[in-house]
Write a structure and sequence with these properties.
α1 packs parallel to α8 and α11 crosses α12. The strands form eight sheets. The protein has a five-stranded parallel sheet with strand order 3-2-1-7-20, with helices on one face. The chain has a five-stranded parallel sheet with strand order 9-16-10-11-12, covered by helices on one side. The chain is built from twelve helices and 27 strands. A hairpin with a 3-residue loop joins β26 and β27. Helix content is about 25%, strand content about 25%. It folds into three domains: about 180 residues, FAD/NAD(P)-binding domain (3-Layer(bba) Sandwich); about 120 residues, FAD/NAD(P)-binding domain (3-Layer(bba) Sandwich), CATH 3.50.50.60; about 110 residues, FAD/NAD-linked reductase, C-terminal dimerisation domain (Enolase-like, domain 1, 2-Layer Sandwich). By secondary structure, it is of the alpha/beta class.
Amino acid sequence: MQVCDIMSRSVVIIGSSIAGMSAAIAAREACPQCPVTVLDEDPDMPYRRPSITSILEGTIRDISDISMYRKAIENSRINVLRGFKVIDIDPVNQVLKIAKPDGSKAKIYYDSLVLATGAEASKQNIEGVDLRGVFVFRNAKDALEINEYAKYSKKAIIVGASFVALLLTEALIRKGLKVLMVVRSRVLRKLIESQASDIIENYLRRIGVEILKGVTIKKIMGKRRVEGAILSDGRSIDSDMVIFAIGSIPRTALATKLGSRVIQGVIDVDNYMQTSVPNVYAAGDCAYSWDLITGNKVYAPTATMASTYGKVAGLNAAGKLMEAPKIIRIQYERFLDLEIISIGYTSDEARAMNLSAKCMDLTDEFKKEYSLWRANVIKLDVTMRGKDKVIGTEIIGLHNSRVFAYPFIYAITKGLKLSEILEELHYPIPSLSAKFTTWYVTT
């Protein structure tokens, strides 16, 4: 269904990460004649943000090695303007005022606008946060700065316990630094159950990481550069660097300037990813997405959500009407020799959403019943709603453990009971992988 004359429809996307580029590619496919322009103030984008740890590890020499969508940009005639910052918006006349890399100003007109502005890394507002040696870890520039500073450092404090914090820790350990993690609660608290956190924390200690739990940083010490920190319990610790990995804040300034509704710091959207302002859409880490399990809007800043809803925003912006599907959160990372997969809800997160849920540890049962799991899976937890309905799964394992996630993704997506999926796990790994990977990709 076309909602306008697509021949004259100019689509402009602000932000070129996963959501932005998914929107651009979808808009181009929906309307081959439409001008599609992507703006990003980062001069190096688009690149794979999860891959920026490779800069610290030294496995890449140039940011272009982790660039993404290169072929899509070349083949689809998408105009990507790197280093262009939007400094003002006129929503009445649908005009963006931009600053070019050389400092000059220009205007870009749009018929449809997609906000894929993402989020920015947050720091604690404490004394010493502006000293040299204090960093966040969000983009390639951050990675390059940390990499350079680490050359002259021996000890680093990482504040936070997210996937980003784990990857940072691994990279700095490989560079020979002593790492201390300051963790308010436990590692990956929102993504895995407490016993699974214990497994990750034991791995960290095994490689020499000191974990300081139940505390926060109260003050960063030093005159011009970081020399240490004072914790909330009064202890002081020496360090050359402090890196915050405590989450991010949605970038909503442009949405606010447009008059788009922002709820609890996140851009509000409807079933078509349109904001409260007509012809303005939003997706990715700046906007809400749609949760399959509750049916409600949720804030879930993950790559899966960004890709899915970026595509929906792009299609609608180009005039092809598509309702946003409801999907589940899926997160996967490799840390040391472990694979960590978190799908849907943990029992704590489910209860926080007023869902009656419990965690079932199926590790021992599955290792006994399903021989294929023995060599791969270290921990398997399933979150159950009611008697037998699966609403979440987490797997910690070794090489190729992620293939076991597909049956559970399928079960949660289809609303199946646990008993309806168990038989699939008897299949050999190649068959299991092929069957559910095909379903997942086509879905």
